[in-house]
Amino acid sequence: MTAGSESVPELLPMVFAAPGEALARAERVLRDRPPPLHASVAHQVIGIWQRDFGDMRLALSHLRRARDWAARADSAEREADVLATLGVALVHAGRTRQGMDALGRGVERGTGHTRARVLFRRAYAWWVLGHHQDALEDVRRAVPVLRQADDVIWTARALTLRATVHLALGSVERADADFTAAETLWDTTDQEHDKADAVESRGLAAFRSGDIPAALKLLDEAEERYAKLGTPTFMLNIRRCEVLMAAGLAAEALAEADAAIRTLDGIGGQSTRKAELLLAAARAARLADDPQTAIARAALAVKLFAGQRRAWWETHARLVLIEARHAAGRGSGRLVADAAAVAEKLVALGAPAAPEASLLAGRIALDLGWTADAERHLAAAARSRRSGPPLARMTGWAAQALRARAAGSARGVLEACRRGLDVLDDHRMTLGASELRARATAQGAELAALAQRASLVSGGPRRLLVWSERWRATALSAPPTRPPADPALLSGMTAYREIAARAEEARQEGKPVPALEREQRRLEREIRSRTLHMRGAAPGGGDRFDVGRLLGRLDEGDGGQLVELAVLDGRVHVLLCGQGRVRRFEAGLLAAAETEAEHVQAGLRRLAHPGAEARLPVVEAAGRRLEELLLGPAAAHLGTGPVVIVPPGRLHRVPWALLPSLRERVLSVSPSASSWLRAKETAPPPGGRQVLVRGPGLATGGAEVSELAGRYGGATVLEHEDATVPRVLAELDGAALAHIAAHGTFRADGPLFSSLRMADGPLIVHDFERLDRSPYRIILSCCDTARFATVGADELLGLVTALLPLGTAGVVACSAPVNDAAVVPLMLALHQGVGAGLSLARALRDARAALPGDALHQATGWAFSAFGAA
Angle formed by the axes of helices 112-129 and 76-92, to 10°? Predict the structure, then answer.
């Protein structure tokens, strides 16, 4: 291409069709000493590339040269166009007044079609600054002219911008119409960057309408498109942070925002984007319970937005700053006034976040005892409960519940909490991935706590039980959506197993594995990303918990009692259910029980090795202290029948059989009373098929499997090279009884990648979720299979909790490392009871009693628990 080439003006649309090629061609044009008009175009192309994808300092330098060359070419239209590009760059650099002046001069210099393009870019600048009505006015003036000129690219850009502004103002339906019209136009062009931006915008629209799985899928698709073009994705980072936060993944949002800020600083990128990323990081840190980080990020964002004259954004950053200060314990009258002022400003700006600020002002005022002020602010926030997206309505119902509490109306509190949690129930059921369902419950934690406190004051033990169940282990109330028959997902999981197996083999040989571990982490991100795209079923959370039904089931057969532990304001309340009634007892502090449980776990780990017998009295003493903290006076009222323990998520690692009053009992554990009821009422599959699996690398070689194969004459036995993940899953599906002897690994950083080691690599939780029906009973003679990650309000993610909603009625699993040799006699004794027709809980109790009385075998027995009711 030469300086005199007629195709030089075509470089401008090429910036967003093939950015790298446009940059290279523009640089070649400048090397050929072009005439002023072409020099102006080339410098403008380089300036746009640097503005959007590189160094703002270089962008401004090239755009000023483009303006100067346009003046030399004596082309008012060319100068108007460059002034518009320069104005946007100045705004992004934080030089708001200079930028808007340049855009104003561009509007004055341009005519007709050129002026319409300048108006579009000024509208974009108004949007960046948060002046949404001004943005809509400029777009209104630009669109008819662009359409009349049959300018497909700029018309599509204008419609996309107008849709984005509508979203900022909460007008989702208008935004959808504009996005649809723009997408139709983009399909007729080769503007690949603009097309990627359109996909990203559709992701934002899906999020604003409450469809988190669709939003994640579209944002991932946009990222793939940007990656092919080699362009940065800072706006996409900001939008994905929003979606991740709404999905309960605040820590991930914070990591993404901070990483994007480092990248932006590294290239000298846009100041406006840095401020927005800081705001996203502040919001994420606040939701991740890191108020100090939130304060630091929000304060810097406020400073940058103020310098950029971006009142809309500055006000939102001030809201996050006030929320973070309140979370850090800095409640004061000044903070109430600040929150109220932010609420008023957000209302004036037409921002959907105004109810959040009013709720915050009301909450702080309540803490200070300013009931009149609190009522005024909470009433304003409560108006959002009737309409809008789910989380906005929940804000309104939270405000209504606080109003009722301040007025002393327990009935009003419970009604508001019920309505708010119903909204969240419907929202959760649109999420297909079990992880998202579990994490989404965090949004309802405050409502659940308010309802429990109101129940304790006015409703008696039965009502407290109902509300404890209302928001406990709700992710297990329905099976997760089955992962789609997605070839990319299936091949990714196969590749993951292969890489993980190669890494494990290399570790055993003492070889370095960093490259394999990097590839494993990449595949994990890909698998997780695809599973998060799954949509759930239609709204509706299933049957409501019925106390009478629970008590009826408990009184059947041998009778028995269910012990549900509720935590209110840090103290454990024991709800003892059985013999037709529910009784309440107060026990100890949750924090003390958690500390004691960690001591017990450490003791069990020591006892798993021969020669640690001296630790046995210490562990037993810790068990006695745990009983006092967790059961208190209720321990004396357990009767003689079976006991079901329903602990809060934070106590999932307690070895309940170690507690003195539970040691000789038929004992099972359940994430919730509702979950236990479902397990109790689950019918076994026809045929009674048994599956025995032996994984590689066990110290004993999985010695119990060979003997069990002899006991269960027709059982399917998978071992050695036959124990591959696809074969194991095929046999487990719909089995009546499965026994898996394999190394177990719990992943606290990614609980759904917790695994059992098979011949061809790890069998992970995501694999189990592909089963049509998991085994009716499953025995896992593996370390750490009963460990979980606590997420959301009171949810658990792990291997056992993946099985329970899929048709498994009973699981035996282990919460600590155990001695492989000592496991063998325990498992053989357990199967002897199962073969005699006993439940897993009764068979496990008898198996413990049959073990030798030494410390090693006792610790092994305590480490295993029976879950469910089979």
Answer: 10
**pLDDT score recorded for residue 551:** 92
Q: What is the DSSP string of 150-178?
A: T-HHHHHHHHHHHHHHHHHTT-HHHHHHH
Long-range contact set of residues 801-804: C-beta below 8 Å, sequence gap at least 24: 801/473, 801/475, 801/476, 801/671, 802/434, 802/752, 802/765, 802/768, 802/769, 803/768, 803/774, 803/775, 803/778, 804/476, 804/671, 804/675, 804/678, 804/679, 804/867, 804/868
Q: CB–CB of 374/404 below 8 Å?
A: no
pLDDT in tens, 678-703: 999 899 998 889 999 999 888 777 78
Strands 561-568 and 643-646: parallel
Contacts for 454 with CB less than 8 Å, ≥ 6 apart: 405, 410, 413, 414, 417
Task: Please tell me the predicted confidence (pLDDT) of residue 743.
Answer: 85
Euclidean distance between CA atoms 716 and 141, whole angstroms: 74
Per the DSSP assignment, residues forming a β-bridge with 716 are: 691
What pLDDT shows up at residue 481? 67
pLDDT under 70: residue ranges of the chain: 1-6, 438, 473-485, 537-543, 786, 788, 791-794, 796
From the CA atom positions of the chain, what is the Rg in Å?
A: 31
Q: What are phi and psi of 498, to 5 degrees?
A: -65, -45
Question: Regarding beta strands 571-578 and 561-568, do their DSSP bridges make them parallel or antiparallel, or are they unpaired?
Answer: antiparallel
Question: Which is it for the CA torsion 274, 276, 279, 281, positive or negative?
Answer: negative
- Which among 225, 266, 219, 251 is positioned nearest to 238, based on CA atoms? 219
Using alpha carbons, list the distances in angstroms from residue 747 to 693, 751, 756, 768, 824: 22, 5, 11, 16, 25
pLDDT in tens, 650-676: 888 899 999 999 999 999 999 899 989
**pLDDT for position 3:** 41
Contact 225, 198 (CB under 8 A): no
First to last CA, the chain: 77
Nearest to 272 by CA among 35, 404, 96: 96
Would you say 645 and 563 are in contact if contact means Cβ atoms under 8 Å apart? yes
Two structure tokens written together for 296 = 């630091």
Q: Residue 567: in which H helix or E strand, if any?
A: strand 561-568
Return the residue matching tokens 């809980």: 841
Q: Where are the beta strands (DSSP E) in 702-836?
A: 716-718, 737-741, 744-745, 755-758, 761-764, 777-780, 789-791, 795-797, 810-814
Of 643, 638, 639, the residue nearest 666 (C-alpha): 643
Q: How far apart are CA 454 and CA 449, in angstroms?
A: 9
361-364: Cβ within 8 A, 24+ apart = 361/336, 362/399, 362/402, 362/403, 363/326, 363/402, 364/326, 364/331, 364/332, 364/335, 364/336, 364/339
pLDDT at 418: 92
Helix 410-428 crosses helix 460-470 at what angle (to 10 degrees)?
20
**Per-residue confidence (pLDDT) for residue 484, from 0 to 100:** 62
How far is Cα of residue 94 from the mean position of the Cα atoms in its chain? 33
Name 700's Cβ contacts closer than 8 Å, sequence gap at least 6: 820, 821, 823, 824
> Is the distance from CB of 31 to CB of 210 less than 8 angstroms?
no
SS3 label, residue 811? strand
Contact 657, 689 (CB under 8 A): no
Residue 477's pLDDT is what?
A: 65
Backbone dihedral angles phi then psi of residue 761, each to the nearest 5 degrees: 130, -170
Q: For every residue of 831-852, which 3-state class applies, written as one string?
A: HHHHHCCCCHHHHHHHHHHHCC
- Residues making up the chain, counted from first to last: 870
Q: What is the pLDDT of residue 233?
A: 87
Identify the three-state secondary structure at position 578. Answer: strand
Q: How many CB atoms lie within 10 A of CB 803?
A: 27
- CA-based diameter of the chain, in Å? 99
CB atoms inside a 10 Å sphere around CB 479 = 18
Return the SS3 of 586: strand
